[in-house]
User: Which sequence fits this backbone?
């Protein structure tokens, strides 16, 4: 639904060049919620603004629903007719809602329809239908100043849906909201994604947002996409930074000469008693140092950090056994000296 190829954006800033996007190839499939995560300055906003041509990329192409937007004329407010039409099929939700305070909630939702020259009666019908969809049917006559942050964002979402878009772009839509409101807005985005078959591209700096709502994700650093894929694919990628952050597991080796493994469970392997099988088969004691389980896209996925006695060279066969069970195993390069410093002290406390 959205494809970028070689997308590059270089800003001229006070006589020097800032490369905000550096050869970004991204593929967002129809009907998925795709999250782009990265730290401040990574280029997320530039990406989303280039996807709907609010910013014209320096080079590269953006195709949305089979249409090459970069081939259409104009940019930003000076977009040509074809680009404006294509853009009306792309909704956008903003971090700070961008509502007009002097207009009622209903009139805010009607605004894009006015621009599309939809008749008054049809505008009103459509706006009320959308407000109902986002759970704000009773607030049509209220003004933005009378609403909570979460309600304002619901209005922002209703307005973004006014042009019946196939794609919704979300620019940190929940960053200004408290955790509970964030959850309710993410739930709404997920419901709209399912009910309307809406493709959602969201940018965020919060891993929890990706974990809660995304089917796929990309990690951006310094203008580049350094990892991307479905959440399941990422979790199955050894050494994936996103996977590690999606399912962080803590815990250090309890002493030197231990093998610490991160075990990732997918789907049916999550329910198999592999750890106890391992213990029985090789007659070894296994310590669980940390674990995180979750359901992502209806599949049970999780991670567990375990410790086996002995250095890695002595555990090659048990590690192979785990891999044969379909588990993904990452050997953690733990710092035994730091861990050893903790270990005996804790053991003494326990003895006391
Ligand atoms: N209009 C602009 N002119 C010059 N430089 C810009 C402009 N917009 C962004 N940049 C620079 O491009 C880089 C990427 O910025 P961008 O806003 O895309 O990142 P971001 O990941 O969205 O960060 P944040 O979460 O802080 O908004 C930064 O170095 C930023 O300073």
Assistant:
């Amino acid at each position: 639904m959205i494809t970028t190829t070689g997308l590059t954006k270089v800003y001229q800033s006070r006589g020097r060049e800032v490369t905000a996007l550096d050869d970004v190839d991204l593929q967002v499939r129809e009907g998925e919620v795709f999250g782009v995560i990265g730290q401040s300055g990574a280029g997320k906003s530039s990406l989303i603004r280039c996807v709907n041509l609010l910013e014209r990329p320096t080079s590269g192409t953006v195709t949305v629903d089979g249409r090459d937007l970069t081939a259409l004329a104009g940019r930003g407010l000076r977009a040509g007719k074809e680009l404006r039409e294509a853009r009306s099929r792309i909704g956008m939700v903003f971090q700070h809602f961008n509502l007009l305070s002097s207009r009622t909630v209903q009139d805010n939702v009607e605004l894009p329809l006015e621009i599309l020259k939809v008749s008054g009666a049809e505008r009103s019908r459509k706006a009320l239908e959308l407000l109902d969809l986002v759970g704000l049917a009773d607030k049509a006559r209220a003004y933005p100043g009378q609403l909570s942050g979460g309600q304002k964002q619901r209005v922002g979402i209703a307005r973004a849906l006014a042009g019946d878009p196939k794609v919704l772009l979300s620019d940190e839509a929940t960053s200004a909201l408290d955790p509970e409101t964030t959850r309710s807005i993410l739930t709404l985005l997920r419901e709209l994604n399912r009910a309307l078959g809406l493709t959602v591209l969201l940018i965020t700096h919060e891993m929890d947002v990706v974990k809660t709502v995304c089917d796929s994700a990309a990690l951006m650093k310094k203008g580049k996409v350094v990892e991307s894929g479905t959440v399941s694919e990422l979790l199955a990628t050894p050494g994936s930074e996103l996977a590690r952050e999606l399912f962080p597991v803590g815990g250090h080796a309890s002493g030197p000469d231990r093998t610490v493994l991160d075990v990732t469970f997918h789907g049916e392997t999550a329910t198999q008693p592999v750890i106890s099988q391992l213990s029985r088969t090789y007659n070894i004691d296994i310590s669980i140092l940390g674990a995180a389980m979750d359901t992502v896209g209806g599949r049970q996925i999780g991670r567990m950090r375990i410790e086996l006695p002995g250095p890695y060279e002595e555990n090659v066969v048990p590690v192979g056994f785990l891999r044969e069970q379909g588990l993904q195993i990452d050997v953690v390069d733990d710092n035994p000296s730091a861990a050893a410093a903790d270990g005996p002290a804790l053991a003494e406390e326990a003895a006391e």
Summary: The chain is about 35% helix and 30% strand. The mean pLDDT is 87.
